[in-house]
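Example for tutorial group B:
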């Protein structure tokens, strides 16, 4: 009886820790983009998106080094949300060193008030990689 009580208590504690997340993915022959929305942990005024960009292009060593350099710096203007035709840029973009080959990960932070009326279109502009723009519908 005591064992069952602790198992039930453990399962309740485990289910209470689960956070609501929404995840979407878009893929073509060059890139695969995954976006997962979460509330920012330390700040209730921000919405955080975990963004993973997988390079699927066959590149030479020189080309691969160029992509790594491009993705490491200056990605602030590559992410935005749409509010009608207006672009809402993030208040912060933090690169994450994840150790996955050909994967670039970022935490992108938006102000909740600023994007409250957006329709949920998250945009990644790969202008420095392949010139394409990827639009993903997130809730």
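The residue assignment follows.
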């Amino acid at each position: 009886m005591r064992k069952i009580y602790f198992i039930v208590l453990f399962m309740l504690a485990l289910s209470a820790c689960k956070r609501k997340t929404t995840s979407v993915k878009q893929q073509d022959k060059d890139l695969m983009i995954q976006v997962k929305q979460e509330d920012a942990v330390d700040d209730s005024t921000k919405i955080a998106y975990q963004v993973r960009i997988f390079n699927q292009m066959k590149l030479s060593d020189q080309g691969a080094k160029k992509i790594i350099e491009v993705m490491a710096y200056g990605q602030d203007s590559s992410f935005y949300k749409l509010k009608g035709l207006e672009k809402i840029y993030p208040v912060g973009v933090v690169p994450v060193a994840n150790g996955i080959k050909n994967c670039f990960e970022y935490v992108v932070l938006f102000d909740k008030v600023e994007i409250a009326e957006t329709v949920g279109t998250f945009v990644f502009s790969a202008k420095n990689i392949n010139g394409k723009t990827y639009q993903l519908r997130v809730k």
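The chain has a mean pLDDT of 80. Compare this with the pattern of hydrophobic and polar residues in the output above.
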